[in-house]
Amino acid sequence: MATKRDYYEVLGIQKSASKDDVKKAFHKLAHKLHPDKATGDVDKFKEVSEAYSILSDDKKRAEYDSYGRVFSDGAGPGAGGFGGGAQGFDFSQFQDAFQGGFGFDFSDVFSDFFAGQQGGTNAGQRRGRDVSIDLELDFKEAVFGIKRTVLLAKIAECETCHGSGAAPGTEVETCKYCNGSGKLHETTNSFFGQITMQSPCRHCRATGKVAKEKCHTCRGEGVYRKQEEVEIIVPAGIDAGEMIRLQGGGEAVAGGTPGDLYVKVHVRPDARFKRDGHNLVTNLSVKLSDALLGAEYTVATLDGDQPISIPQGVTHGELLKISGKGIPTPRGKRGDLFVKVTITLPQKLSREARKLVEKLKEEGV
Q1: Cα–Cα separations (whole angstroms), residue 302 to 281, 309, 328, 336, 337
Q2: Strand pairing category for 261-267 and 337-344
């Protein structure tokens, strides 16, 4: 098989690249260049596929490295030759490239590409672009949850024609490009043999029908860019960095399904509380005398001030628990609030206080 370009250059790898590097390079390029993708390129897709079929096979790669061409392709049917058409080609080598941890579905690249040879009819449904935004919340809003309404500028379905692209009340006719099938077919010759590719008809947005008069609002596109209010329900107990997904809240696309809206949550810290899972920790300064004798204090919680008993002989750094005043859990319960005791010592002592402390020292306190 004569080469048009250096196979290593086609895949963007060095001649010393490992077999795993070859797989990774092909996986990346094939997904990008597949004809059904927005970035697709049929010729380049064929080229990288040919390069991978050689460099992923140890014998063929050795021949290519030594002689600049491969001789084992003509060894007969099933030996890697491309003359027998797509059905006679061994696809297992391509499937191997998408397995082993890449998390990529082999059929995503090749099922549509070979739909004509295998009798398939599903060319895939178009999907709108996902949208990602950031949402900042107060600490208490994140704990108890809240509803927020945000204003987004995005491509949305036309409200006048409801996505049809036709002016209200206008007649529709059969699309002359796809003859009403909603699909376009193109047959090309390649090293795989004769390949028929199928894709949604862009002229009728895969519906098979076109309007005699276009919608004036969206100019027949079925979608247009506008500002839209979106209500976001923030669940109770959400933490900073978590994402909220609103299915169908992304951008619309004519003849397809809308993308999703992803909301990344940012939480403003509260100086009084530190989060620990579904529990909260707060600090409470206690006088030395109260720590020795015990006392009643008031501590701030997310539900308001709460009385708390300081036990006699409490130690510095000891945690006192107030049940049910923490973060809500998925089961509807709440975590706890832990009060960390900080014993404050006087900076100066009066003469009388000093005598008392010295007396306590004599008693071993």
Answers
A1: 11, 18, 12, 11, 9
A2: unpaired
